[in-house]
Amino acid sequence: MISNFQRSAGSLTQLLAQEGITDQRVLEVMAKTPRHLFIDEVLKHKAYQNTALPIGQGQTISQPYIVAHMTAILRAYGVTSKVLEIGTGSGYQSAILAQLFDKVYSVERIKALQWQAKRRLHQLDLYNVTMKHGDGWQGWASQAPFQGIIVTAAASSVPQQLLEQLDDGGVMIVPIGDVEQKLMLYTREKNEFKQQVMADVRFVPLVPGDII
Ligand code: SAH
Known about the structure:
Layout: H1 4-18, H2 24-31, E1 53-56, E2 59-61, H3 64-76, E3 82-86, H4 92-98, E4 103-108, H5 111-123, E5 129-133, E6 146-151, H6 160-164, E7 166-177, E8 181-189, E9 192-201
Parallel strand pairs: 3-4, 3-6, 4-5, 6-7
Antiparallel strand pairs: 1-2, 7-8, 8-9
Helix pairs in contact: 1-2
The structure holds S-adenosyl-L-homocysteine (SAH).
S-adenosyl-L-homocysteine is lined by residues 59-62, 86-87, 89-90, 92-93, 107-110, 113, 135-137, 152-153, 204, 206-207.
């Protein structure tokens, strides 16, 4: 029997395909990942709408389209093994990454969100995500280099330390800007970096400094 969850997630991914997401693996994984487990009880009826939703602490779970788009970009650039995510938040993006890449590292500055995200991933039997409570601007030097880096909060300028933690041939996808934000793609060949603009986006800020 098809559950409500399967039906709703199925229509969400159909919509994402209509909106231009062509990576079938990304669509498959999103169709089987229960987004309703990553948001508050009171907002659950909106879990399969293509919108960002509040997750507490002034933060949001990203819009499904942008989750799919950013993940598909990493895959299109050949990322398969080791990915660093900045901004764990609800853990939904981490859950998608965990099913597509060998090993995921995720950094979050708000401890309460990180704990909740960890619990949810274990509930879904996803154990290949390692989490850290820390400042994403610093990345995760002891685990570097990474084949892919995905930043899910908007940086005021490109975080240099993250560029340094990219492997040769690696790619980083990151929203840059304050009110006007651009989703930027950085690619590394040896010590040369190239950048390109991928889309106009709207993310919560990548907060500088203190972790809480
Ligand atoms: N990927 C998340 C999106 C969460 S919103 C999801 O799927 O739900 C962005 C997250 O980035 C928030 O949880 C916020 O607390 C976190 N964040 C903001 N600034 C940060 C920083 N400097 N270091 C680490 N995490 C940060």
